[in-house]
C-alpha cells in the first residue's frame, strides 16, 4: 500500500527533531553534523536567533496580505536586492523553480515587446538544473528528470558546458537568451570560468540576447560574495535566486534591469503567496546578517579553511576521494566509489552531505561555520573514507575466494 506521503523522494531513514547552527539531532537523540544546510537553504544554520526573533515578531502582526495591496516588508526586501545587485526591480515568489519560470517569461516578454516575437528559445548548458516544473526540466534537459513527462516543453536548446564556440554556433534568429548557473550545484559543483562568463555576456551583447543567471543555489553569499557573478565582473539582464534567501523559510526572487522589467506590466505575472509579510520579514533578517560588515569576508575565510581541510582529506584518502571543487562554502568532493555509497556511510558516521552529478558529494555548510565544525567535518569524513575502504577490501576478498 502506498504511503500517505507521495513517493517522490528516496528518503534516508532519518528523522530530525531540532537543530542549532551546523548541528542537527534525530528524534532518537543522535547528533549529526549538517553539511547539507537543506541543500544550501539554511544559510545561517539552524534556528539562528535573528531569524527566530523575526518569525516570532512578524507572526504576531501579519502573516499574509494579498499583492493587491502594498506590502512594506516586500518593498524593503526588493530595495535591498536592487541596491546589492545589477538589477532595477525584483519580483518575490516562493521557490527557485518559480523564480526561473518568471525569468523565462520575462525574457520572452522582452523580445515580444521589442519587436522580436520569434525569439522564444533559450540556450542552456549540459549538467544544468533549473527546477522541477515542466519548463525548468526542459531547460535542464537531464534525461532522468524528463523521463515520463513528454512532450518536452519547447523553447530550449543545450550546448556543452564551457564551450563558447558551440554556444555561439547554436545562436539562431529564434534564440532570445542564455541561461546559466555561475556554479552548477546539482551538476557537480562545476563553476564557469571568469572568461566563460565574460564570453556569455559578450555573446548576448553581440547578438541582442538576454543573459539570465541562475543563482538559486550559488547566490546569497554562498561563494563568499553576495552573488557568484560578481567574481567575473559581469552582470546579467535577469537573475533568479532562492534557497539561502530565506534562511529556511520558503521564498524566491527574480531580478531584472529596467529595460526588461518595464515590460512586465500589471497582470503579466503574479503569485498568491509570493512576497507575503512573513516570508519577507525572515528574508530581511537574513540580509541583516549577511550584509553586516565583515560577514562575507568571514565566509571567504571559512571557505578557504574548509577547502584546505577537504584537500587534506583527499590527500590522505586518494583511493576514496579524487578532488575538491568549488569556492566559498559551495564545495564538492569528487568520489572514486559511487557517491551514493559514501553518502549513506556518512549517515552511519553522523554526517550529512548531499550527492550531485559527476559522482560528487556536495559540502554546503551554513555560512556561519567555524573552526570547530570544520575539524568535525574532517574527523567524520576520515571515518567515511575508512569505512568505505574496509568494505571495498572485504568485497574484493570475498570475490577472490
Polypeptide structure, described:
With 401 residues, the protein is of the alpha/beta class. The chain has two domains: 16-34 and 294-400, Alpha-Beta Complex (Aspartate Aminotransferase, domain 1); 49-290, Aspartate Aminotransferase, domain 2. It has 13 helices and 17 strands. The chain has a seven-stranded mixed beta sheet, sandwiched between helices. It has a four-stranded mixed beta sheet with strand order 1-2-3-15. It starts with 15 loop residues before the first strand and ends with a helix.
Describe, in short, the structure shown.
By secondary structure, this protein is α/β, with parallel strands linked by helices.
Main sheet? Answer: 7 strands, mixed
Low-confidence stretches: none
The proportion of residues in beta strands is 15-25%
- Return the domain count: 2
CATH fold type of the largest domain: Aspartate Aminotransferase, domain 2
Please identify, by name, the CATH architecture of the largest domain.
3-Layer(aba) Sandwich
Largest sheet, spatial ordering of strands: 4-12-11-10-7-5-6
Total helical elements: 13
CA-to-CA gap between the ends? 41 Å
Helix proportion of residues, in percent?
A: 25-40%
Whole-number mean pLDDT: 97
Radius of gyration: 22 Å
State the secondary-structure class: alpha/beta
Compressed to H and E, one letter per element, the order equals EEEHHHEHEHHEHEEEHEEEHHHEEHEEEH
**CATH homology superfamily of the largest domain:** Type I PLP-dependent aspartate aminotransferase-like (Major domain)
Classified by CATH, the class of the largest domain is Alpha Beta
According to DSSP, the number of beta strands is 17
Taken from the alpha-carbon principal axes, the silhouette is globular
